[in-house]
Amino acid sequence: MIATLLFIGEESSDSKITLTDAPTWIIDPVDGTMNFVHGYPNVCISIALVIKKVTEIGIIYNPFINWNFTAKRGCGSFLNDKKISVSKTKELSLALVGFELGTSRNEEKGKVVMANANLLAPVVHGIRSAGSCAMNMALVAMGASDAYYEFGVHAWDYAAGDILVREAGGVCIDPAGGPLDLLSCRMLCASTPELSRELVDLIVQFDPKRDDE
User: Fold this and answer.
1) Which of 30, 40, 74, 102 has minimal CB crowding within 10 Å?
2) Beta strand pairing call for 6-9 and 24-31
3) Which residues bind Mg(2+) (predicted)?
């Protein structure tokens, strides 16, 4: 007998999200919507299969540049069938860090975003913004970027990226340093635990409304 399959996606965003132990597909058909509208090629389809609240499979596909990222728990991460891994960067001074201004016009969040940009700029090697949570995480997984964090994203934005980064050897946690929560709307990923701890100690925190509230 096939277990009941559940689905969580951006179309669910107007209602309270519940993540159970049942096999659940978490899907964002267009991650990077503003990029898509403008023809900017950082646009992804993001798909994750979560069972008992653990991500088992992740797929991030960018059709503009034909990058297909895949990961399965315990089997590694791949880009177009070639195995990928995170960088070995441990220090912020050597790190290329991704972050987003975001589309939210929340004044409090905007202040936190700019405060963090001002904190990061003098101490990191560089800052980048891909305009897509899934793409930012895929870049960390392939070693092109060293870390990425964001407040105000949703499960469908980062569930696939979570397993992609972890299977590539990186870490995914809450920006305050605790375990990653797929419904918290907060995430941080990095190539190494050392780099993640430096980021956690530096950035100003922000608590968006959770997806299960």
Assistant:
1) 74
2) parallel
3) 10, 28, 31, 157
The domain limits of the chain are: 6-83, 92-202
Do residues 172 and 162 lie in contact, with contact meaning Cβ atoms separated by under 8 Å? yes
CATH architecture of 6-83: 2-Layer Sandwich (3.30)
Tell me, yes or no, if the two domains 6-83 and 92-202 fold the same way: no
Annotated binding residue at 157?
yes
Q: Residue 38 carries which side chain, given as an amino acid letter? A: H
Whether the predicted model's global pTM rises above the 0.90 cut: yes
Q: Is 95 helix (H, G, I), strand (E, B) or coil?
A: coil
The answer to whether the annotation marks 31 as part of a ligand binding site is yes
**Are the C-beta atoms of residues 40 and 129 closer than 8 Å to each other?**
no
Structural contact between residues 147 and 188, judged by C-beta atoms closer than 8 angstroms: yes
Q: Does domain 92-202 fall into CATH 3.40.50.720?
A: no
